[in-house]
Amino acid sequence: MFDGSSGRVIAVNGRGGDGGIDVQVTTDAGLRIFQLKYFPDGFPGSLKSRRTAIKKSFKRAMQHEPVEWTLVVPCTLTTSERTFVNNLPNGQPVTVSVLDRTGLDGGFAEHADLEASFTRDQLREAARDFNQEQALLLGGNDLVDRVRALGRRADNIDADWTWDFARRGKSVIRTLRAKHPLAHEVSPIMLRVTGRTDAMSTDLTAAITRTLGFGIAEEVILPPAAVESLTIDGPAWLSETVTSPMLVWKPVPTAAGAGTPVEVTFLDTGGAVAARYAGRLNTIGSGGLGASIDADIYGARLQMMLPFDNTAAATLRYSFDLEGREPAEAIKILRLHQRLLRGGDLRVTVNGQHGGSGMLPSTETADDMRQVERLLLYLADLDVVQRHCEAYFPAPLTYTAQERVDLRVARLLIEGRCVAHPYARTLTLTLNGQDDPTARRLLSVEPQALRISPPGHEVTIGGRTLDIGPVHLFHTRLTIENAREAFAALRNGQGAGKKIVLRPDHGEHFRVFLAGSNDHGQPLAPTPLGLDGLTEPR
Fold it and tell me: DSSP string of 476-519?
């Protein structure tokens, strides 16, 4: 027998002459030809016409230069018949074989559905004779009708329970279903599972604890290797013991109350309230070890497992996503994340009623907290700038080093601070050639004070440009690198277009402050940027 991977199979329609080919199979090794002869009683030497027909078919087939030629007949060959077939090549480079009754029976045994399709019409006639068409599923809706009838039979087995069933390939899946809400009280069913603890992984044990211990609605699959036996105690028709089954269970979540207000309260070491976070309930559950509360809080998904034993540690699984969130919302999520990392005592209320309490172990590390603080500062800076410019958009979670510094500078300027700008080390001006006392005083070799007021200060973050308004750029001790050269050019009437480079004294940076933020003339001492990993500008 051949499947799709054996080669390309073509059955030839012989009405116009088959050229010695009934079925051809093209493989990597070459062409294989099958010649079909319906000789149920063989082709003995006494029936020369049959042997002549076989020879003619063989000769026509050889014109296609096959690597193998196979005669298919529905009989068991005698020694004489097999010798006849083996002598057909007569020195030609081709392999000759026979697929007779033995080989056909073996193939149909392996592909019973193929045999059934061949004999279907015969069975149809027999079924009609005995009024059994439906038993053979000959009609278009017969399968559906039979399944429904089987379902009705299953429903009649017990007054309280029934089976729902489905077929998946060779497997039949049965699902026990209560026929009324009190079935578990009128006719209780008990399941006893004997497991093999040495065959259970750490992940599987944790999943069992979550579902059975705290009622988490999570599907758990126990492979046969982990289950020694399953005993079902209940009605006689249902009770049995099964060895090494595969078990799949999933507790039904309590959907009632979904959307109910939930509040998580964190307590400090003295028992006082340190923080409160409000959200909405998804599901609530209970098991042998404690209660479980699944809630959404500021975009974070929290799955809390709170033991009945107040001295035992609570367990928490949570996830959050900052993508697509504006800074103010992302800050709340990160603050909650920070609280959860620190751990400590917490209380949970559901719709104002006590839902559970526990002690959450600390999982924070120095690196974790440093990364969270760094991200919180970035989001806080962006939030200030967005509110100042009244331009709101989701916080970009990737940015360049310069974008980060510019954003930090912008936030401090908006808050009325003076900043030594880390990227403002020099200032280049172009002279217009006008020689006057002011220009000559500027070109003095002595340090000078200078303030420049550009009309706006732009910050680019995530491909968006925000203008925080006019600023003042200044320094009280500036030197000009090419002062003498520029002074001479100006005096000789050649100053037009001459560039001069101004640099703050002692390697310092230019100072910047937002226009209108220092109208009272307060001292303009630079505020440190406070960015992790950045050397503070002077």
Answer: EEEEETTHHHHHHHHHTT--TT-EEEEEEGGG---EEEETTTTT
Q: If DSSP codes are grouped into helix, strand and coil, which group holds residue 407?
A: helix
Residue 244 phi, psi dihedral angles, 5° rounding: 50, 50
Cα–Cα distances in angstroms (integers) from residue 186 to residues 1, 66, 155, 329, in the given order: 56, 74, 17, 52
- Tally of residues, the chain: 538
pLDDT along the chain (538 residues), means of 10: 63 66 88 91 88 92 92 92 92 92 82 58 52 56 81 86 88 86 88 87 88 86 90 89 86 72 92 93 88 87 88 87 93 92 90 88 90 95 96 94 95 94 89 83 81 90 94 90 84 87 90 81 82 90
- The strand ranges marked E within 217-332 are 220-222, 227-233, 240-243, 247-249, 261-267, 273-286, 290-297, 300-307, 315-319
Both structure tokens of 159: 């007054």
Tell me how far apart the alpha carbons of residues 157 and 523 are, in angstroms, rounded to a whole number.
93
**Could you say which DSSP state residue 209 is in?**
I
pTM: predicted TM-score of the whole model, two decimal places: 0.60
